TrEMBL record:
Protein name: Tc1-like transposase DDE domain-containing protein
Gene Ontology molecular function, alphabetical: nucleic acid binding
The Tc1-like transposase DDE domain, residue ranges: 177-367
Origin superkingdom: Eukaryota
Matching InterPro entries: RNaseH_sf, Tc1-like_DDE_dom
Length: 438
């Protein structure tokens, strides 16, 4: 079968022909027959080094060649920090509660560009909404409304109930709320670089070169917990740093630096990072062997027929799956403390995120590139006052109230918008909404 000869190969054939023609007309060999690489280079118009590389490839692959793929530069990734993600969530709720409209990609993007400086595409925003836990719900009219997944809304409602109930108690009964978090900073830290949570969802920027330092701390409206600051050098090249702050490191910090310095019977607020959420009573999954599933059912005194297949056994597990017991909750609980987890992607409910920003400015002001970053960070945290914490906590209290007040009417507003969508379905084509399904 004849194969198509591409333009580059045609050009080489023509060059070889021209060289042979010159030798024919001269009735003489124009280059040394003993120097094969040089003769090949002159005939093909390529360098000798290129000829050598191609010949070596031919020897290795028995004369079979493949065209190397283009080194294409990927599109620059849009960076969204924790606060950007929280702001996007609030804008979506704003559509329902204030504008009384169904948020769609096409009407969200102009608002996000104007208010947040968002410069992403429709597809990028679609991916962000997936990460944040939003989906499109089809109405009876086949039109779609963007709504938050119920498990995230439920976790937010549960969190607000616990926190607000505690805040409403008389002062003598109120528990102190302690917020903790982890972050990192690199040796060549500059003011224009973003301080970022080590488990931020979504798309991240490239990390600058130099040593990386993992930082973990905790505090309340009364200031940082004394002696709780931990800074250690990271060794991983992994940009998200999950391997640096792991279960072992986190548990060691909690037991050795946090617990000894906590006020009695505190509420400890943390996010859902994997190392915060090690399950002690983990139930079997599809990856569990049948014998282990049966052992788990027996240990939990769940009757089963020994002839059941694996899918049937897993249905039994699902039916009797216990409420998860988290290792860190048990450790803190043994000292009289209560763990409360933030709802996913709600960094705006954690005042320590604002404290990171203050620390960032203090570190950058010390010309980090020429000094010890660990010492600079320690000085920065030492310069953050009780007043800074009090202002940050007050800001978060207002956000909590805003979420609570908004949710009193949010789902009623969503229902009304859905009804309006169905009533107006005759004026808009279904396909206009189908293309926006996440």
């Amino acid at each position: 079968m004849n194969r198509t000869i591409r333009s580059s190969a045609r050009e080489i054939i023509y060059r070889v022909y021209r060289r042979c023609l010159l030798e024919y007309e001269a009735k003489n060999i124009l280059s040394d027959l003993n120097n094969v690489y040089k003769r090949t280079a002159e005939m093909t118009g390529k360098s000798e080094s290129t000829v050598r590389r191609v010949v070596l490839e031919g020897h290795r692959n028995n004369g079979i060649f493949s065209t190397p793929g283009k080194q294409r530069r990927g599109r620059p990734k849009k960076h969204l920090d924790d606060f950007d993600l929280c702001a996007i969530r609030q804008k979506i709720q704003f559509f329902y509660t204030v504008r009384k409209q169904a948020p769609m990609l096409r009407n969200l993007i102009p608002i996000l560009r104007e208010d947040l400086g968002y410069d992403g595409s429709h597809e990028h925003l679609r991916q962000v909404l997936k990460v944040l836990g939003f989906k499109y719900m089809k109405c009876q009219s086949e039109r779609s409304a963007l709504i938050e997944k119920s498990h995230i809304a439920a976790k937010r409602a549960e969190y607000l109930k616990i926190i607000l109930n505690n805040r409403n108690l008389p002062e003598e009964l109120r528990k102190e709320v302690i917020y903790l978090d982890e972050s990192y900073v690199h040796q060549s830290y500059k003011l224009e670089k973003c301080w970022q949570s080590i488990h931020v969802p979504g798309i991240k920027q490239n990390i600058s070169k130099g040593k990386r330092y993992i930082i973990i701390h905790a505090g309340s409206e009364k200031g940082f917990i004394p002696n709780a600051l931990l800074i250690f050098t990271g060794s991983s090249k992994n940009a998200d740093y999950h391997s640096e702050m792991n279960r072992s490191n986190f548990t060691k910090w909690v037991t050795e630096k946090l617990i000894p310095n906590l006020p009695p019977a505190s509420i400890i607020v943390m996010d859902n990072a994997p190392y915060h959420s090690t399950v002690l009573n983990k139930a079997p999954t599809t990856g569990t062997k049948i014998a282990e599933i049966k052992e788990w059912l027996t240990q939990n005194q769940i009757h089963f027929d020994d002839t059941l297949r694996k899918p049937q056994l897993l249905m039994l597990v699902k039916r009797h799956k216990p409420v998860p017991k988290y290792e860190i909750d048990e450790i803190l609980g043994s000292y009289g403390h209560t763990v409360v987890r933030l709802p996913p992607y709600h960094c705006d409910l954690n005042p320590i995120e604002l404290i990171w920003g203050i620390a960032k400015r203090k570190i950058a002001a010390q010309n980090v590139g020429s000094i010890d970053i660990k010492e600079a960070a320690e000085r920065a945290f030492g310069g953050i006052t009780e007043s800074d914490w009090r202002k940050s906590c007050k800001h978060v209290v207002e956000i909590e109230k805003s979420y609570y007040q908004r949710e009193l009417t949010l789902y009623h507003d969503i229902e009304q918008v859905v009804i309006n969508l169905e009533d107006s379905s005759s004026t808009t084509s279904d396909s206009e909404f189908e293309e926006e399904n996440i």
